[in-house]
Design brief:
There is one protein chain. With 115 residues, this protein is mainly β. The protein has a single domain, classed as Sandwich (Jelly Rolls), CATH 2.60.120. 0% of the residues lie in helices and 46% in strands. The chain has no helices and 11 strands.
Length: 115
Amino acid sequence: MKYGPGGFNALHRELRGSVFFPIQMAIVLSKRAESDSPETEGFRGGEFLLCNVPERKKSRRRELPAGLGDAVLFCTRDRLVRVGGVYGLQPVKHGAARVTAGTRFVLGVPFHEYR
């Protein structure tokens, strides 16, 4: 996936395919800018986003600033959470924040079938 300035990946869930593994991987192939200086090479913004569904006031978006060589494993549809004394599935969404400068390349590795 390629994201230039203004590019992003809206929060979503993977709901395609009858066969799927509940985890996906994204590997960043671009260097992250080390400062806000316009002369610095790399991309700015583009943090990996995770959010519970439905999104409420108490829900928190988690941002993961990943750069060159970083891999993120994440749940594609639901995550296992403890509620009281039992465990259940919590729907989650994932995406990428808006890139503010540079170009961000990411290799997405889905572990499910697309149809």
